[in-house]
Amino acid sequence: MNVLQVSGLTKKFGGLTAVKGVDMNVEKGSITAVIGPNGAGKTTFFNMITGVYKPDGGEILLEDKSLVGFKPHDISKRGIARTFQNIRLFGDVTVLENVMVGLHNHLKSSVFGVLLNLPHVRREEKEAQREAYRLLEYVGLAEFLNEEAQNLSYGAQRRLEIARALASKPRVLLLDEPAAGMNPKETKELTDLIYKMREELDLTIILIEHDMKLVMEISEHIVVLDHGEKIAEGGPLDIRNNPKVIEAYLGKSAVAH
């Protein structure tokens, strides 16, 4: 069963077509990678799925319901969360508070209730703190709950961003270059976390990643973009041996050899 269906997705910036007519079907519970050289349109593709950009053409369906035209917070409510290529944490607030930000879509308190500090608001805040702590435990960061986010190691900041994304209770999680800048130990921890989230949280995971070792190890399905167009898709073995993919990464001379 496909949880996410993308068809004919297109985005133009002036005279430049960043993404052109891309199709992708994502099976529920799968791990899918979107790869391609720099400038291939991968992040623009993610930005359309999550409502940062409105597509100039095409359709995006989450469980057969269109997402086109919705704002990022609306798409988050509908079940898609993401992390970013460049870490976007609130560096000068605590680790716990960063995760609590991700819970805001599910809080019911009104501005009036917050201003008056009503009992139900205090109860909801306590519940949010407990949920945020549970998520920190899940990603292995509970011991740092009162630390400022900017003081965490790079790998820990990546995991904190994932915890914040999980706070929105997604069904589909998009990870934009989650292993970028990580050392081998941190990459192994990330790999284990991705498998754990898929199995225990019933998540469907889509990642953009340049670490080909990680992509080939973890992905069940791979979509390859080049200059905004899909040039190949399939399993890791199919992609590894695809002449178009080899050419996109290494040039025509590599295909000849």
TrEMBL record:
**Entry's PROSITE patterns?**
ABC_TRANSPORTER_2
Q: Which domain of life is it from?
A: Bacteria
Name all ABC transporter domain ranges: 4-252
CDD domains given in the database record: ABC_Mj1267_LivG_branched (cd03219)
Q: Which GO terms describe its molecular function?
A: ATP binding; ATP hydrolysis activity; L-isoleucine transmembrane transporter activity; L-phenylalanine transmembrane transporter activity; L-valine transmembrane transporter activity
Q: Which UniProt keywords apply?
A: ATP-binding, Nucleotide-binding, Transport
Q: Name one GO cellular component term.
A: plasma membrane
Q: Which GO terms describe its biological process?
A: D-alanine transmembrane transport; L-alanine transport; L-isoleucine import across plasma membrane; L-valine import across plasma membrane
> Cross-referenced Pfam families, in alphabetical order?
ABC_tran, BCA_ABC_TP_C
Official protein name in the record:
ABC transporter ATP-binding protein
